[in-house]
Design goal:
Elements lengths: L1 H10 L7 E3 H4 L15 E3 L5 E2 L2 E9 L5 E7 L4 E5 H6 L7 H13 L6 H14 L23 H8 L7 E4 L12 H6 L5 E4 L1 H9 L3 E4 L2 E4 H8 L3 H10 L4 H6 L5 H8 L3 H20 L4
Antiparallel strand pairs: 1-2, 3-4, 4-5, 5-6, 7-8, 9-10
The protein binds zinc ion (2 copies).
Protein backbone atom coordinates (compact mmCIF):
# COMPACT_ATOMS: atom_id res chain seq x y z
CA UNK A 1 0.00 0.00 0.00
CA UNK A 2 2.72 2.44 1.04
CA UNK A 3 4.74 1.49 -1.99
CA UNK A 4 1.73 2.16 -4.17
CA UNK A 5 1.26 5.65 -2.74
CA UNK A 6 4.97 6.35 -3.14
CA UNK A 7 4.85 5.37 -6.78
CA UNK A 8 1.87 7.56 -7.39
CA UNK A 9 3.63 10.45 -5.70
CA UNK A 10 6.56 10.02 -8.05
CA UNK A 11 4.44 10.03 -11.16
CA UNK A 12 2.49 13.05 -9.91
CA UNK A 13 5.66 15.05 -9.19
CA UNK A 14 5.15 18.80 -9.04
CA UNK A 15 6.49 21.04 -11.80
CA UNK A 16 8.98 23.37 -10.12
CA UNK A 17 7.81 26.53 -11.81
CA UNK A 18 4.24 26.35 -10.62
CA UNK A 19 4.48 27.81 -7.14
CA UNK A 20 1.76 30.37 -6.68
CA UNK A 21 1.90 32.93 -4.01
CA UNK A 22 -1.57 32.71 -2.52
CA UNK A 23 -1.02 35.90 -0.56
CA UNK A 24 -0.78 38.01 -3.66
CA UNK A 25 -2.75 36.02 -6.20
CA UNK A 26 -5.69 34.91 -4.16
CA UNK A 27 -7.73 36.11 -1.27
CA UNK A 28 -5.62 37.08 1.75
CA UNK A 29 -6.06 34.68 4.64
CA UNK A 30 -5.69 35.21 8.38
CA UNK A 31 -3.44 32.71 9.99
CA UNK A 32 -5.33 31.16 12.86
CA UNK A 33 -2.22 30.42 14.92
CA UNK A 34 -0.77 33.91 15.19
CA UNK A 35 -3.68 36.07 14.15
CA UNK A 36 -1.31 37.83 11.82
CA UNK A 37 -1.54 37.79 8.10
CA UNK A 38 0.92 35.33 6.85
CA UNK A 39 2.15 34.55 3.44
CA UNK A 40 1.31 31.07 2.35
CA UNK A 41 2.85 29.40 -0.57
CA UNK A 42 0.92 26.63 -2.20
CA UNK A 43 1.93 24.58 -5.13
CA UNK A 44 -0.46 25.34 -7.93
CA UNK A 45 -2.50 22.40 -9.10
CA UNK A 46 -4.63 24.16 -11.70
CA UNK A 47 -4.92 22.15 -14.91
CA UNK A 48 -3.38 19.02 -13.44
CA UNK A 49 -5.14 15.71 -13.90
CA UNK A 50 -5.62 13.08 -11.20
CA UNK A 51 -7.37 10.03 -12.60
CA UNK A 52 -10.67 11.38 -13.90
CA UNK A 53 -10.33 14.69 -12.08
CA UNK A 54 -9.07 17.92 -13.59
CA UNK A 55 -8.23 20.71 -11.15
CA UNK A 56 -10.15 23.87 -12.02
CA UNK A 57 -9.34 26.36 -9.29
CA UNK A 58 -8.15 26.96 -5.77
CA UNK A 59 -10.97 27.32 -3.25
CA UNK A 60 -9.52 28.01 0.19
CA UNK A 61 -7.40 26.91 3.07
CA UNK A 62 -9.70 25.10 5.46
CA UNK A 63 -9.64 25.11 9.25
CA UNK A 64 -7.17 22.23 9.29
CA UNK A 65 -4.74 24.22 7.08
CA UNK A 66 -5.39 22.05 4.06
CA UNK A 67 -5.69 23.60 0.64
CA UNK A 68 -8.98 22.80 -1.06
CA UNK A 69 -9.28 22.67 -4.82
CA UNK A 70 -12.26 22.49 -7.13
CA UNK A 71 -12.10 19.63 -9.62
CA UNK A 72 -14.12 18.63 -12.64
CA UNK A 73 -14.71 14.92 -13.02
CA UNK A 74 -14.91 13.31 -16.47
CA UNK A 75 -18.53 12.46 -15.74
CA UNK A 76 -19.33 16.17 -15.44
CA UNK A 77 -19.62 16.47 -11.69
CA UNK A 78 -17.75 19.28 -9.92
CA UNK A 79 -16.48 18.53 -6.44
CA UNK A 80 -13.89 19.91 -4.01
CA UNK A 81 -10.88 17.91 -2.93
CA UNK A 82 -8.02 18.55 -0.57
CA UNK A 83 -4.57 18.73 -2.13
CA UNK A 84 -2.99 15.93 -0.15
CA UNK A 85 -5.59 13.34 -1.10
CA UNK A 86 -5.20 14.27 -4.76
CA UNK A 87 -1.41 13.98 -4.61
CA UNK A 88 -1.54 10.73 -2.65
CA UNK A 89 -3.87 9.28 -5.26
CA UNK A 90 -6.75 8.72 -2.85
CA UNK A 91 -9.09 10.86 -4.94
CA UNK A 92 -9.33 9.85 -8.57
CA UNK A 93 -12.93 10.63 -9.40
CA UNK A 94 -16.06 12.21 -7.97
CA UNK A 95 -17.02 8.73 -6.78
CA UNK A 96 -18.23 7.47 -10.14
CA UNK A 97 -15.11 5.37 -10.70
CA UNK A 98 -15.60 3.31 -7.57
CA UNK A 99 -19.25 2.68 -8.38
CA UNK A 100 -18.39 1.65 -11.92
CA UNK A 101 -15.64 -0.68 -10.80
CA UNK A 102 -18.00 -2.33 -8.37
CA UNK A 103 -20.57 -2.80 -11.06
CA UNK A 104 -18.09 -4.27 -13.54
CA UNK A 105 -16.46 -6.45 -10.92
CA UNK A 106 -19.69 -8.01 -9.78
CA UNK A 107 -21.68 -8.24 -12.96
CA UNK A 108 -19.04 -9.84 -15.12
CA UNK A 109 -16.26 -11.33 -12.96
CA UNK A 110 -16.30 -14.12 -10.39
CA UNK A 111 -19.48 -12.78 -8.86
CA UNK A 112 -20.18 -15.91 -6.88
CA UNK A 113 -16.62 -15.98 -5.54
CA UNK A 114 -16.59 -12.67 -3.70
CA UNK A 115 -16.96 -12.62 0.07
CA UNK A 116 -19.65 -9.95 -0.19
CA UNK A 117 -21.67 -12.15 -2.51
CA UNK A 118 -21.47 -15.05 -0.07
CA UNK A 119 -22.60 -12.76 2.73
CA UNK A 120 -25.49 -11.51 0.62
CA UNK A 121 -26.50 -15.00 -0.37
CA UNK A 122 -26.56 -16.36 3.16
CA UNK A 123 -28.63 -13.36 4.26
CA UNK A 124 -31.23 -14.24 1.61
CA UNK A 125 -31.10 -17.91 2.57
CA UNK A 126 -31.62 -17.49 6.31
CA UNK A 127 -34.51 -15.07 5.73
CA UNK A 128 -36.28 -16.86 2.92
CA UNK A 129 -35.27 -20.48 2.61
CA UNK A 130 -37.10 -22.66 5.11
CA UNK A 131 -34.44 -25.34 4.77
CA UNK A 132 -31.64 -22.98 5.74
CA UNK A 133 -30.01 -23.62 9.12
CA UNK A 134 -30.58 -20.06 10.30
CA UNK A 135 -34.16 -19.77 9.08
CA UNK A 136 -35.71 -20.29 12.52
CA UNK A 137 -33.81 -17.29 13.91
CA UNK A 138 -34.52 -15.02 10.92
CA UNK A 139 -37.26 -15.95 8.46
CA UNK A 140 -39.37 -17.55 11.16
CA UNK A 141 -39.00 -14.48 13.39
CA UNK A 142 -40.24 -12.32 10.50
CA UNK A 143 -36.86 -10.79 9.58
CA UNK A 144 -37.03 -9.71 5.93
CA UNK A 145 -34.70 -8.59 3.17
CA UNK A 146 -36.11 -5.48 1.54
CA UNK A 147 -37.10 -5.36 -2.11
CA UNK A 148 -34.03 -3.51 -3.42
CA UNK A 149 -31.57 -5.79 -1.69
CA UNK A 150 -32.86 -8.85 -3.46
CA UNK A 151 -30.43 -7.81 -6.18
CA UNK A 152 -26.82 -8.37 -5.15
CA UNK A 153 -25.52 -5.32 -7.05
CA UNK A 154 -27.78 -3.05 -4.99
CA UNK A 155 -26.66 -4.64 -1.76
CA UNK A 156 -23.02 -4.21 -2.71
CA UNK A 157 -23.48 -0.62 -3.77
CA UNK A 158 -25.01 0.25 -0.39
CA UNK A 159 -22.71 -1.79 1.84
CA UNK A 160 -19.41 -1.63 -0.03
CA UNK A 161 -16.56 -4.02 0.65
CA UNK A 162 -16.66 -6.20 3.71
CA UNK A 163 -13.75 -5.35 6.03
CA UNK A 164 -11.62 -8.28 7.11
CA UNK A 165 -13.03 -10.21 10.05
CA UNK A 166 -16.39 -8.47 9.84
CA UNK A 167 -19.81 -9.93 9.22
CA UNK A 168 -23.13 -8.41 8.27
CA UNK A 169 -25.06 -7.13 11.25
CA UNK A 170 -28.36 -5.40 11.78
CA UNK A 171 -28.16 -2.32 13.99
CA UNK A 172 -31.55 -3.08 15.53
CA UNK A 173 -31.76 -6.82 15.97
CA UNK A 174 -35.52 -6.93 15.73
CA UNK A 175 -35.68 -5.08 12.42
CA UNK A 176 -35.01 -6.08 8.83
CA UNK A 177 -32.18 -6.08 6.34
CA UNK A 178 -33.38 -2.82 4.83
CA UNK A 179 -31.78 -0.29 2.48
CA UNK A 180 -34.00 2.55 3.70
CA UNK A 181 -34.43 3.90 0.19
CA UNK A 182 -36.56 1.57 -1.89
CA UNK A 183 -40.33 1.61 -2.24
CA UNK A 184 -40.86 -1.17 0.31
CA UNK A 185 -38.60 0.52 2.87
CA UNK A 186 -40.29 3.89 2.46
CA UNK A 187 -43.80 2.41 2.63
CA UNK A 188 -43.02 0.53 5.83
CA UNK A 189 -40.85 3.23 7.36
CA UNK A 190 -37.79 0.95 7.43
CA UNK A 191 -34.52 2.79 7.89
CA UNK A 192 -31.08 1.68 6.80
CA UNK A 193 -30.38 -0.94 9.45
CA UNK A 194 -27.11 -2.61 8.50
CA UNK A 195 -23.41 -2.48 9.18
CA UNK A 196 -20.27 -4.52 8.87
CA UNK A 197 -19.35 -5.49 12.42
CA UNK A 198 -16.86 -7.61 14.28
CA UNK A 199 -18.27 -10.66 16.12
CA UNK A 200 -17.77 -8.99 19.55
CA UNK A 201 -19.96 -6.08 18.54
CA UNK A 202 -22.62 -8.47 17.26
CA UNK A 203 -22.57 -10.51 20.45
CA UNK A 204 -23.02 -7.38 22.50
CA UNK A 205 -25.90 -6.34 20.32
CA UNK A 206 -27.54 -9.75 20.49
CA UNK A 207 -27.18 -10.38 24.19
CA UNK A 208 -29.32 -7.35 25.01
CA UNK A 209 -32.22 -8.54 22.92
CA UNK A 210 -31.72 -12.28 22.69
CA UNK A 211 -34.26 -14.45 24.47
CA UNK A 212 -32.96 -17.56 26.16
CA UNK A 213 -35.01 -20.72 26.59
CA UNK A 214 -34.35 -22.80 29.69
CA UNK A 215 -36.61 -25.40 31.32
CA UNK A 216 -39.29 -24.63 28.74
CA UNK A 217 -39.41 -20.91 29.56
CA UNK A 218 -38.19 -18.13 27.23
CA UNK A 219 -37.10 -14.74 28.48
CA UNK A 220 -34.26 -12.22 28.27
CA UNK A 221 -31.02 -12.55 30.18
CA UNK A 222 -32.01 -9.72 32.53
CA UNK A 223 -35.22 -11.53 33.42
CA UNK A 224 -33.33 -14.78 33.95
CA UNK A 225 -30.83 -12.98 36.14
CA UNK A 226 -33.64 -11.75 38.40
CA UNK A 227 -35.43 -15.10 38.49
CA UNK A 228 -32.31 -17.15 39.23
CA UNK A 229 -30.78 -14.61 41.59
CA UNK A 230 -27.53 -14.74 39.64
CA UNK A 231 -25.86 -11.48 38.68
CA UNK A 232 -26.39 -10.60 35.00
CA UNK A 233 -22.68 -9.94 34.47
CA UNK A 234 -21.83 -13.35 35.87
CA UNK A 235 -24.35 -14.99 33.56
CA UNK A 236 -22.94 -13.06 30.62
CA UNK A 237 -19.37 -14.10 31.22
CA UNK A 238 -20.40 -17.72 31.79
CA UNK A 239 -22.19 -17.80 28.44
CA UNK A 240 -20.17 -15.44 26.23
CA UNK A 241 -16.70 -15.56 27.76
CA UNK A 242 -16.40 -19.08 29.09
CA UNK A 243 -18.83 -20.61 26.58
CA UNK A 244 -20.72 -22.59 29.22
CA UNK A 245 -23.91 -24.31 28.14
CA UNK A 246 -27.12 -22.56 29.17
CA UNK A 247 -27.92 -25.48 31.53
CA UNK A 248 -24.58 -25.15 33.33
CA UNK A 249 -24.60 -21.37 33.39
CA UNK A 250 -28.10 -21.24 34.86
CA UNK A 251 -27.90 -24.15 37.30
CA UNK A 252 -24.62 -23.61 39.14
CA UNK A 253 -25.21 -21.20 42.03
CA UNK A 254 -22.86 -18.32 42.38
CA UNK A 255 -20.26 -18.45 45.13
CA UNK A 256 -18.05 -15.45 45.49
CA UNK A 257 -14.38 -15.55 46.33
CA UNK A 258 -15.19 -13.98 49.69
CA UNK A 259 -17.70 -16.66 50.59
CA UNK A 260 -15.27 -19.41 49.61
CA UNK A 261 -12.52 -17.93 51.74
CA UNK A 262 -14.90 -17.60 54.65
CA UNK A 263 -15.96 -21.20 54.44
CA UNK A 264 -12.49 -22.68 54.23
CA UNK A 265 -10.28 -20.42 56.29
CA UNK A 266 -10.31 -18.81 59.72
CA UNK A 267 -9.89 -15.06 59.68
CA UNK A 268 -6.47 -13.85 60.87
CA UNK A 269 -8.01 -11.76 63.67
CA UNK A 270 -9.83 -14.82 64.95
CA UNK A 271 -6.58 -16.84 64.82
CA UNK A 272 -4.68 -14.17 66.81
CA UNK A 273 -7.44 -14.16 69.45
CA UNK A 274 -7.18 -17.93 69.83
CA UNK A 275 -3.38 -17.85 70.09
CA UNK A 276 -3.59 -15.14 72.75
CA UNK A 277 -6.10 -17.19 74.73
CA UNK A 278 -3.84 -20.23 74.49
CA UNK A 279 -0.84 -18.18 75.66
CA UNK A 280 -2.64 -16.91 78.77
CA UNK A 281 -3.90 -20.38 79.52
CA UNK A 282 -0.34 -21.71 79.23
CA UNK A 283 0.95 -18.98 81.57
CA UNK A 284 -1.70 -19.86 84.14
CA UNK A 285 -0.73 -23.52 84.01
CA UNK A 286 2.95 -22.59 84.49
CA UNK A 287 2.14 -20.35 87.47
CA UNK A 288 0.13 -22.99 89.23
CA UNK A 289 2.02 -24.41 92.18
CA UNK A 290 2.06 -28.10 92.59
CA UNK A 291 0.71 -29.23 95.94
ZN1 LIG B 1 -17.41 11.38 -11.83
ZN1 LIG C 1 -35.11 -1.16 0.78
Amino acid sequence: MLQKIKNERLTEEMPETSIVNIYSDLEKKECRDTGKRRERKIKDLIGRIFGRLKVIRFICIDNSHRSIWECLCECGIIKNFCRSTLIAGHSKSCGCLRKENARIKFTTHNKSQSKEYRTWNSMIQRCENQNSVGFRYYGERGIKVCQKWHKFENFYEDMGERPKGNTLDRIDNNLHYSCGKCEECIQNGWKFNNRWATPQKQNFNKRNTLKITYNGKTQSLVEWSIELGINKKALESRIYRYNWSIEKAFSIPIMSQYQQNNNNKIKIIELKKRIKALETELQEIKNKTIR
